Structures are given as C-alpha cells and as structure tokens.
Amino acid sequence: MQKIAPLLAQHHEGDLVRVSDFYTMIRRRGNGLIDVMDVLSMVGILLDDRPSVFGTWLKSTIDKLLDLIAGYVRRCAHVLREGGP
User: Fold this and answer.
1) In terms of residue numbers, what domain contains 76?
2) In the chain, is it the N or the C terminus that has fewer CB atoms within a 10 Å radius of its CB?
3) What is the pLDDT of residues 19-40, one digit of tens each?
C-alpha cells in the first residue's frame, strides 16, 4: 500500500491517475509497476498514457524509409492495427 499512498494523497474524486505521473517514481523505488497499475485499474482511476510499444517501433522503422514508401507503410500499418476500409 505504501507504493500508491503518494499517488493518492492529492487525488480528487473523478480524477484519473496517469501512468506517466508515477512511472519514474515506482521504477526508481524498485516497486512493482504492474501491481500499482492493477490496483489503480481495479479502483477505476488508471489512465495508461504510455506510448504504445508497437507505435514506437513502427515510427522508428518508418523513419528509415523513403518518404513515398513510408506513407504507404504507415497507412497499411494503421489499417491493419486499427481497422479501416
């Protein structure tokens, strides 16, 4: 419980707690990030605002391509991941 006490000290009803607000603190203390996220999720106040691993990888990969090809790959990846026509 001491892991999340500092997070909830300033919490107001209706607010969400962003992962980016506590990620560094939890990791620095060597505490379990997943445990904290699970508790906040169960309470219904977690907002996971971490960048998607796939999105980060895709951007770094596409940045290496020629502009004409990169646009096509970006559109295809978006449709495959998010759906579309």
Assistant:
1) 53-82
2) C
3) 887 877 777 766 677 888 888 8
Q: In the numeric block, which tokens belong to residue 9? A: 């000290």
| Close Cβ partners of 57 (under 8 Å, ≥ 6 residues apart) | none
Amino acid at site 28: R
Give the gyration radius of the chain's Cα atoms.
Answer: 18
pTM above 0.70, yes or no: no
Number of domains in the chain: 2
The neighbour count for residue 73, using CB atoms within 10 Å, is 13
